[in-house]
C-alpha cells in the first residue's frame, strides 16, 4: 500500500505588465498625487512609451480612453465601488482606488468582456499593489461585474424626486455643487428648456469625448484646404465658424500640412466664435491696434492676429506668465502682418490708457465650461474657487476698458457658464459707469441658435457642440 504524497504548491507566477494599463495607472497617480492635468501628463507618457518596442498605436488609444473615461466617470464609479465594499471610500488606499476605478471603467464603460476586464485589473493590481491587495481588488471587481452601468446607477443614485441635484450628480458623475451651478445658469439662459431632460443632456455632453476641431487662420489657410489635406471620411465642416473643420475619430491634426506650418491650429469652435465676434463688432473711428490682454496659450490670439493682418491692423498679445507668453509667441509665429507678444500683467498695464481699438480679455476662471477636455477639473474645483476668481475678473475687465479708446470695443470672455463669473461680473463693472454701451453680440454669431435674449451670449456643449464659452461685448462711448 503506497503512502500518499503531499500536493506540490502551485509555483508563484510573476504578474505580467500590460503596457497600456500600466501607463493609464501612472497617469492617474500623477493626476491624484501631483495635481497634474491629464492633457499635459498623458502626451509625455505616451511619447516615452512609444519608444518601447511592442507599444503600438492601439495601446496609446486604449490608454487614452482608460485615463479620460475613468476621470470623467469617477464620481459614478466611486458610488458603485462604495456599494461593493464594507468600508468608507476614504479608508481605501488611493492606489487601490485608482486600480478599481480603471477596472470599473473597463467593466462598465467599454466593450471589454467582463472576464477579461476582471482578469486584467487583478493582474495590474498584482504588479502595482502586490498579491495581498490584488485579492481585495478581485473580490470587488467580481461584484461590480454582476450588473451593467445603468442598473448600478439606478441602484446607487438617490431618487430624483427626493434630491434632484444629488441624483443627477451620481448619474452623470459631477460634483453636486457643479450640477447646481450649471442648473442655475441654464435656467437664466434657457428658461424654457432647463428641466431634468435638458440638464441630463448638458451633463452627458460634459462626459462625451469632444471632437478635435481645427481652425484655418484667415489669409494663411482655408477650411477647404484643411479638409482636402485628409481623407474625406476623416473630416466634417464646422457647425458655426467659417474657419472650422472637425476631425472625426481617426483624423490626425499632425497630418495636415497647414497645421505643421502653423497656418492652422487646433481650437474649439466656441473660442473661434469669440475671437471672430470681437473682430466683427462695429466700432467708431480707426481700427488699427488690437489687444489680447490674457493671451495664453495663444489660440484666440493667433486667430485675432490673422484677422487683424487682413485689415492692416496690429495685434498686441499680452500674457502675465513667461512660459505661457512663450506659447503665445509660438502660436503667432509666421503671422504675415505685424504683431507683438509681451509679458505683462493686465492688472498693471504696460500700455497707456485708451491705446487700443479692440480689446479681448479672456479671463482666468473655474473652467467649468471645459469639463469635457479637463475632466479632472470637476473634482478639484470648489465653490470657493469661483469667489476667488471674482476680484481678478473684475479687475481685468476694468483694466481692459481703460485700455480701450472712446468708440472702441471690449470683449469679455470666459470658459465658464457660472453666473458669478459671467454676467454678474459684467453687471458689477458696469454699475455706476455711463461711458459704456452693451453691444448685442448675437448678430455677430450668425446662424448660431439658442443664444438667449442677449445682449451677451452663452454657448453650451449640449446645444452647440462647443465648450461653454461666454462673451459680452462693450463699446466705450466717445
TrEMBL record:
InterPro entries: MeTrfase_RsmB-F_NOP2_cat (IPR049560), MeTrfase_RsmB-F_NOP2_dom (IPR001678), NusB-like_sf (IPR035926), NusB_RsmB_TIM44 (IPR006027), RCMT (IPR023267), RsmB/NOL1/NOP2-like_CS (IPR018314), SAM-dependent_MTases_sf (IPR029063). The keyword Iron-sulfur does not apply. It is an enzyme of class 2 (transferase). The keyword Transferase applies. Its EC number is 2.1.1.-. Keywords: Methyltransferase, RNA-binding, S-adenosyl-L-methionine, Transferase. GO terms for molecular function: methyltransferase activity. PROSITE patterns: NOL1_NOP2_SUN (PS01153), SAM_MT_RSMB_NOP (PS51686). The active site is at 415 (nucleophile). Residues 202-477 form the SAM-dependent MTase RsmB/NOP-type domain. Belongs to the class I-like SAM-binding methyltransferase superfamily. RsmB/NOP family. One of its GO terms (biological process) is methylation. S-adenosyl-L-methionine binds at residues 294-300, 319, 345, 362. It comes from the Bacteria. This is RsmB/NOP family class I SAM-dependent RNA methyltransferase.
Amino acid at each position: 500500500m503506497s503512502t500518499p504524497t503531499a500536493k506540490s504548491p502551485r509555483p508563484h507566477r510573476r504578474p505580467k505588465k500590460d503596457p497600456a494599463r500600466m501607463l493609464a495607472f501612472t497617469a492617474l497617480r500623477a493626476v491624484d498625487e501631483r495635481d497634474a492635468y491629464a492633457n499635459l501628463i498623458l502626451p509625455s507618457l505616451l511619447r516615452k512609451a512609444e519608444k518601447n518596442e511592442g507599444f503600438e498605436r492601439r495601446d496609446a488609444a486604449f490608454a487614452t480612453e482608460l485615463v479620460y473615461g475613468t476621470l470623467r466617470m469617477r464620481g459614478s464609479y466611486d458610488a458603485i465601488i462604495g456599494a461593493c465594499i464594507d468600508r468608507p471610500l476614504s479608508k481605501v488606499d488611493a492606489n487601490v482606488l485608482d486600480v478599481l476605478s480603471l477596472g470599473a471603467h473597463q467593466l462598465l464603460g467599454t466593450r471589454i468582456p467582463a472576464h477579461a476586464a476582471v482578469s486584467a485589473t487583478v493582474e495590474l493590481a498584482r504588479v502595482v499593489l502586490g498579491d495581498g491587495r490584488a485579492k481585495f481588488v478581485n473580490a470587488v471587481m467580481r461584484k461590480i461585474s454582476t450588473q451593467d452601468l445603468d442598473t448600478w446607477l439606478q441602484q446607487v443614485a438617490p431618487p430624483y424626486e427626493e434630491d434632484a441635484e444629488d441624483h443627477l450628480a451620481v448619474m452623470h458623475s459631477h460634483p453636486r455643487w457643479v450640477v447646481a451651478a450649471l442648473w442655475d445658469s441654464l435656467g437664466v439662459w434657457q428658461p424654457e428648456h432647463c428641466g431634468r431632460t435638458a440638464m441630463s443632456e448638458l451633463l452627458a455632453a460634459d462626459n462625451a469625448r469632444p471632437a478635435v476641431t481645427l481652425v484655418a487662420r484667415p489669409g494663411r489657410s482655408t477650411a477647404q484646404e484643411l479638409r482636402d489635406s485628409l481623407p474625406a471620411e476623416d473630416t466634417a465642416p464646422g457647425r458655426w465658424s467659417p474657419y472650422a473643420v472637425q476631425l472625426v475619430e481617426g483624423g490626425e491634426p499632425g497630418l495636415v500640412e497647414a497645421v505643421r506650418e502653423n497656418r492652422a491650429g487646433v481650437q474649439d469652435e466656441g473660442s473661434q466664435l469669440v475671437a471672430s465676434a470681437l473682430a466683427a463688432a462695429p466700432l467708431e473711428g480707426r481700427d488699427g491696434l488690437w489687444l489680447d490682454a490674457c493671451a495664453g496659450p495663444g489660440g484666440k490670439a493667433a486667430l485675432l492676429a490673422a484677422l487683424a493682418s487682413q485689415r492692416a491692423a496690429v495685434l498686441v498679445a499680452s500674457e502675465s506668465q513667461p512660459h505661457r507668453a512663450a506659447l503665445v509667441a509660438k502660436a503667432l509665429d509666421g503671422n504675415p502682418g505685424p504683431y507683438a507678444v509681451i509679458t505683462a500683467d493686465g492688472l498693471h498695464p504696460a500700455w497707456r490708457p485708451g491705446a487700443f481699438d479692440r480689446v479681448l480679455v479672456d479671463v482666468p476662471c473655474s473652467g467649468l465650461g471645459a469639463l469635457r477636455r479637463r475632466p479632472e477639473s470637476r473634482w478639484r474645483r470648489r465653490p470657493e474657487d469661483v469667489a476667488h476668481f471674482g476680484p481678478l475678473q473684475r479687475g481685468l475687465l476694468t483694466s481692459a476698458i481703460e485700455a480701450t479708446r472712446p468708440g472702441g470695443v471690449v470683449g469679455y470672455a470666459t470658459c465658464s457658464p457660472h453666473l458669478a463669473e459671467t454676467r454678474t461680473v459684467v453687471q458689477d463693472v458696469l454699475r455706476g459707469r455711463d461711458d459704456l454701451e452693451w453691444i448685442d453680440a448675437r448678430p455677430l454669431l450668425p446662424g448660431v441658435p439658442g443664444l438667449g435674449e442677449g445682449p451677451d451670449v452663452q454657448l453650451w456643449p449640449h446645444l452647440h457642440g462647443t465648450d461653454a464659452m461666454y462673451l459680452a461685448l462693450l463699446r466705450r462711448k466717445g
